[in-house]
Write a structure and sequence with these properties.
heterodimer, A: about 500 residues, alpha+beta, Uridine Diphospho-n-acetylenolpyruvylglucosamine Reductase, domain 2, Uridine Diphospho-n-acetylenolpyruvylglucosamine Reductase, domain 3, Alpha-Beta Plaits, 4 domains, seven-stranded antiparallel β-sheet, five-stranded antiparallel β-sheet, about 20% strand, globular, B: about 350 residues, 3 domains, four-stranded antiparallel β-sheet, 17 strands, binds flavin-adenine dinucleotide
Chain lengths: ~500, ~350
C-alpha cells in the first residue's frame, strides 16, 4: 500500500467519476442531504462524497481507492436503520448499494434465492410467492429495508420467534474486504468447514466488509395462519399469559404486546377494533397446517381466558387477520401522531422480567416527566419502548437520551442486552461498556483488526475503541448534542 | 457440579509462559474428529453442571463439560428438547464439544443446528481471559457474534467454558414413514416434500429406502400421514431409527472404511461415485464410505454446491476439512491470532495451517 498524498474532495470526486457514472457520484450538499442520516435522524453528518456504483467491480474500485488513502467507507442500504449505523463520516464516502436491486435467481426446489444486497426484504417474499415460498424474517420496515442492511444488522421481525433472525435464514454471502478482495462465505449447504464466518459477518454493521450478494433460505408458506387478540387489565397478567403459552409447548409464529399508550395510538390510527380501555394487549399468531392451527388456536383462546383476558377475538378471515396486525404494524407512525417526536429503544430481557421492567419504566417515566409507549416482541423479550418527547423544547432530547440509557442499563441488570435487533451503531456505543467489560471490548477490537486493520470501514460505530471506553467511563452517561431535530424515526 | 475455571485458566497461562500447546478434551467422544491432536491435555470434562434452566424462558445455560445426557434428562422433565438433536457418540459427549465441532442431528434443516440455537458463550481465550459474549436472551445484536463463530472452530479460538442455548418444546407426537425408493427418486421426493408446508422433521435415504419423520400436533401429523403414505409403510419404532442415525450406530457407519461427509445443496445430483451412500438432512448432508482422494472429493462437493470433510478414519495427518481459499485462510489465521496470539489451543487440529 503506497500512501501517496490523500486526495482532497475535488480530486476524490474526479477519481471516482473516472469509472462511475458522474451523476452517481454526489458531491453537492443538496443532493447529499437525504444521505445525512438513517432512520435515527437525531444523528446526522454530511459526507465528503456519496457514490452509487452499479457493478461489483466498481465497488471494488471504490474500496481500493479508499483503502489506499485511508478514507472511511460507510455502506448504506435503504437507510432505515435505527442506530445511526449508516450515518456518514465527515471525511468519508457513503457507499450506497441501492442500485444492486436485482433478484438473481430463485430455486424453488432447493428453497433458496440469490439476491443483490440492495433488494428490499419484501421484494424477496413477493418474488417467491408464486412458488408458494417466502423469506422468513419480516422487520416492520420490510417494504423499504434491504437484505444487505438486514444481514449487517441481523434483523428480526414479528415472526422471528418461530422462524429465526437473519442469521438463521441465510446460506451464504459474497463480500468485499476493505481492500476490495472478493470473499465467498458459506455455501449452498447448511454449514461449511472452519470457523462460522457467516455468523460473524451477520450483524457486523458494515464494520468487517461490504456485502455484495446474499443467498437466502425460503420457507413454504403455511397452509393457514390465524391471530388471536386478547385484552388484559394489567401488564402483569398479559406477561403471565405469554409465559403460559410458551410453557404449554406452543411456539406461536408471532407474539406481540402493546401497552395502553400504544393501544390507543394504534387504534386511532388503524381502527383495527382494539379495546380502548385495555391496559395491555396481546396479539398471538399461530400458523401451520390447517389441523395444527385449529388445535393450537383453541388452546391459545382457552389459555388467554384462564389468565384473565377481558376479551379474546380470533381472526376469521385473511382480511380480519391483516386488520388486527395493521394496528401493531403501524404502531410507530401512530405514536408519531400523538407526540411531536419519539425515541425507540431496543433492549431485550428475559421474559420473566417483563412485568418488573415495565413497572420500573413507568417509574422512570414519572421521574423524567416523559411518556413511554410500549410495543414489543413479547415472545422473545425484545422491548421497544417509545419515549415521547418534543425536540423543540430545549433540553428535552438530552433528557430523553438519558432516560433511554437508564432503560438499557435496566435491561442489562435483569440479564438482558442493550439491543435485540436494531444494532449498536453510534447510538448505543456508550452503552456497550455496560454490557461488556474492557477485555471483551478489546477482543471485539481485535476481531475488527483482523478484517480491517486501518479501521476505515464504518469507523466510530458498533464497537467502542479502547479510547472510547476510557472516555465513556469518565463521561458516564453524558449525552451527545443532537445536530438536528428529530423527525420521528419511522 | 463444579466450577474449575481458575484451574483451567492457570493451565492456559502456564502453557503460554512455557511455550507449550494444549489439546482441549471434553468427553473424548469426538477424539476421532479433525486432524491428529497434539499438545498437553486440557480437560474441561470436570467443568460441568447446569448453571440455569428456566423452562418458561426456553433457555438453558450449562458449563461446557456437562454431558449431553445430563442436559437431555433435565429437559425431558419439562417436555423440552435440544432441538438440534446432537449426536451422542458416547455417553460422555459434552455440550462444549458439540458446539466446537458444530454437531447436529437429523432434525437440523427443520429444527435448527447447535450453531443456530446458541445464544451466548463464555470462553477462555489464549491470554487466559474469561470472556462472556452473547447472552441468555433470544435476541442480542450487541457486538460481533463470537458465540456462533465457535461452531466448527474446533477449539482453535479458545476454551468454551459455558454455553447458553435456546431449547424448544418437544413435539406432541412423531411418526416415521418409509418408502422403497432409489437414490435419485428419493432425493427428488425429499426436496418436494420439504417445500410443502407440512410438519416434516427429518428425511433420510439409506439402502433404497426413504425415511420421513413427521412431528407436531397430533391432528397435523395424522392428516399428513394420510396424504403422504401411499405405497409407504408406517414404522412402529421410527424413533429408534433416528437415534441410531443421529449417533452413527446404524450398520452403515460400522467398520474401518473412511467416512466422508458432504454438506451440499440438497437438490444437487449425487456425486458419481460407486459405493455406499447415506443421505440425511433432506439431501443437504450426505455420507460416503470408502477410500478416495481429498482432491477428488472436493471437486465433487464443489460441483454439488458445497463442501466435504473426512469425518472419520483415513489419513488424519493430512488435511481432513475442505480446502479454504487463500483469502479465507488468511482471515481465519488472523482471527485465531486475535483470540490466541501464542497459538496455545489445539494446534493443527482444524487445519494444518491453524
Ligand atoms: C419503521 C421501522 C421499523 C423497523 N422495524 C424493524 C424490525 O421490526 N426489526 C428489525 O430488526 N429492524 C427494524 N427496523 C430497523 C431497520 O429497518 C433494519 O435495521 C434494517 O435491516 C436496515 O436496513 P437498511 O437497508 O435500511 O440498512 P441501512 O440503514 O442503510 O444500514 C444499516 C447498517 O448496515 C450497513 N450496511 C447496509 N448495507 C450494507 C452492505 N451491503 N454491506 C455491508 N454493510 C451494509 C450500514 O453501514 C449500516 O451500518 C425498523 C426501522 C424502521 C424505520
Amino acid at each position: 500500500m503506497t500512501e501517496v498524498s490523500k486526495p482532497d474532495k475535488a480530486r476524490l470526486v474526479e477519481l471516482l467519476r473516472r469509472f462511475i457514472d458522474p451523476e452517481s457520484v454526489i458531491d453537492d450538499a443538496e443532493t447529499q442531504r437525504p444521505y445525512e442520516c438513517d432512520g435515527l435522524s437525531m444523528y446526522c453528518e454530511m459526507p465528503l462524497v456519496v457514490v452509487l456504483p452499479d457493478t461489483v467491480e466498481q465497488v471494488q474500485q471504490v474500496l481500493r481507492i479508499c483503502h489506499q488513502h485511508s478514507i472511511p467507507v460507510v455502506a448504506r442500504g435503504a437507510g432505515t436503520g435505527l442506530c445511526a449505523g449508516a450515518m456518514p463520516h465527515a471525511e468519508g464516502v457513503v457507499l450506497s448499494l441501492a442500485k444492486f436491486n436485482r433478484i438473481l435467481s430463485i430455486d424453488p426446489l432447493a428453497r433458496s434465492a440469490r439476491v443483490q444486497p440492495g433488494v428490499r426484504n419484501l421484494a424477496i417474499t413477493e418474488a417467491a410467492a408464486e412458488q408458494g415460498l417466502y423469506y422468513g424474517p419480516d422487520p416492520s420496515s420490510q417494504i423499504a429495508c434491504t437484505i444487505g442492511g438486514n444481514v449487517a444488522e441481523n434483523s428480526g421481525g414479528v415472526h422471528c420467534l418461530k422462524y429465526g433472525l437473519t442469521v438463521h435464514n441465510i446460506l451464504s454471502v459474497e463480500m468485499l474486504s476493505v481492500e476490495g478482495e472478493k470473499l465467498s462465505i458459506g455455501s449452498q449447504g447448511l454449514d461449511s468447514c472452519g470457523m462460522d464466518l457467516l455468523a460473524l459477518i451477520t450483524g457486523s454493521e458494515g464494520l468487517l466488509g461490504i456485502i455484495t450478494e446474499v443467498t437466502v433460505k425460503l420457507l413454504p408458506q403455511p397452509e393457514k395462519a390465524q391471530v388471536v387478540l386478547a385484552a388484559f387489565d394489567s401488564v402483569q397478567q398479559a406477561a403471565d399469559a405469554v409465559g403460559g403459552i410458551i410453557s404449554r409447548g406452543i411456539i406461536p409464529a408471532g407474539l406481540e404486546m402493546m401497552d395502553t399508550h400504544a393501544i390507543r395510538a394504534a387504534e386511532d390510527f388503524a381502527r383495527a377494533g382494539y379495546p380502548g380501555n385495555a391496559q395491555a394487549l396481546l396479539l398471538c399468531e399461530v400458523d401451520g397446517t390447517i389441523e395444527e392451527v385449529q388445535e393450537h388456536i383453541a388452546q391459545v383462546e382457552g389459555l388467554f381466558a384462564s389468565f384473565g383476558a377481558t376479551s379474546v377475538r380470533t381472526s376469521q378471515s385473511e382480511t380480519e387477520r391483516a386488520l388486527l396486525w395493521k394496528g401493531r404494524k403501524s404502531a410507530f407512525p401512530a405514536v408519531g401522531r400523538i407526540s411531536p417526536d419519539y425515541y425507540c429503544m431496543d433492549g431485550t430481557i428475559p421474559r420473566s422480567q417483563l412485568a418488573h421492567v415495565l413497572t420500573e419504566m413507568q417509574r422512570l417515566s414519572g421521574e423524567y416527566q416523559l411518556r413511554v409507549a410500549n410495543v414489543f416482541h413479547a415472545g422473545d423479550g425484545n422491548l421497544h419502548p417509545l419515549i415521547l418527547f418534543d425536540a423543540n423544547v430545549p433540553g428535552e432530547f438530552e433528557k430523553t437520551e438519558e432516560f433511554g440509557a437508564r432503560i438499557l442499563e435496566l435491561c442489562v441488570q435483569v440479564g438482558g442486552c442493550i439491543t435485540g435487533e436494531h444494532g449498536v451503531g453510534i447510538e448505543k456505543i456508550r452503552q456497550m461498556p455496560i454490557q461488556f467489560n474492557e477485555q471483551e471490548l478489546l477482543q471485539f477490537n481485535a476481531i475488527k483488526d483482523a478484517f480491517d486493520p486501518a479501521g476505515t470501514l464504518n469507523p466510530g460505530k458498533g464497537v467502542p475503541t479502547l479510547r472510547h471506553c476510557q472516555e465513556y467511563r469518565s463521561l458516564e452517561t453524558k449525552t451527545m448534542p443532537p445536530s438536528t431535530s428529530v423527525k420521528g424515526a419511522a | 457440579m463444579a466450577d474449575i475455571v481458575p484451574l483451567l485458566q492457570q493451565q492456559i497461562l502456564s502453557a503460554r509462559d512455557q511455550g507449550t500447546k494444549l489439546n482441549i478434551i471434553g468427553g473424548t467422544s469426538k477424539a476421532f474428529m479433525g486432524r491428529v491432536a497434539s499438545g498437553d491435555p486440557l480437560n474441561v470434562g470436570g467443568h460441568r453442571g447446569i448453571v440455569s434452566y428456566q423452562p418458561v424462558e426456553l433457555v438453558l445455560t450449562a458449563r461446557a463439560g456437562t454431558p449431553l445426557i445430563e442436559l437431555v434428562a433435565a429437559l425431558d422433565e419439562h417436555d423440552q428438547m435440544l432441538s438440534f438433536e446432537p449426536p451422542r457418540f458416547s455417553a460422555a459427549s459434552t455440550l462444549g464439544g458439540t458446539l466446537a465441532c458444530n454437531q447436529s442431528g437429523p432434525g437440523r434443516p427443520w429444527w435448527s443446528s447447535v450453531r443456530d440455537q446458541v445464544l451466548g458463550v463464555r470462553l477462555l481465550n489464549g491470554r487466559g481471559e474469561h470472556l462472556r459474549f452473547g447472552g441468555q436472551v433470544m435476541k442480542n445484536v450487541a457486538g460481533y457474534d463470537v458465540s456462533r463463530l465457535q461452531a466448527g472452530a474446533m477449539g482453535s479460538l479458545g476454551l468454551i467454558t459455558e454455553v447458553s442455548l435456546k431449547v424448544l418444546p418437544r413435539p406432541a407426537v412423531s411418526c416415521t414413514l418409509a418408502f422403497d425408493l432409489g437414490l435419485e427418486d428419493a432425493l427428488g421426493l425429499m426436496n418436494r416434500r420439504a417445500a410443502e408446508p407440512k410438519p416434516l422433521s427429518a428425511a433420510c435415504w439409506l439402502d433404497n429406502r426413504l425415511y420421513l419423520r413427521l412431528s407436531g400436533a397430533p391432528a397435523a401429523v395424522d392428516a399428513t400421514v394420510r396424504q403422504w403414505l401411499g405405497q409407504g409403510e408406517r414404522l412402529d419404532d421410527g424413533d429408534a431409527f433416528w437415534v441410531a442415525l443421529r449417533d452413527q450406530k446404524l450398520a452403515f457407519f460400522a467398520g474401518k472404511a473412511p467416512l466422508w461427509r458432504f454438506s451440499v445443496n440438497p437438490t444437487a445430483a449425487n456425486p458419481a461415485l460407486e459405493g455406499d451412500w447415506l443421505i440425511d438432512w433432506g439431501g443437504a448432508q450426505r455420507w460416503y464410505r470408502g477410500d478416495a482422494s481429498m482432491a477428488q472429493m472436493q471437486a465433487m462437493a464443489e460441483a454439488a454446491g458445497g463442501q466435504v470433510s473426512l469425518f472419520r478414519g483415513g489419513d488424519r495427518q493430512a488435511e481432513v476439512m475442505h480446502h479454504q481459499p487463500q483469502a479465507l485462510q488468511t482471515l481465519q489465521q488472523r482471527l485465531k491470532q486475535s483470540f490466541d496470539p501464542d497459538g496455545v489451543f489445539n494446534p493443527g487440529r482444524l487445519y494444518g495451517w491453524m
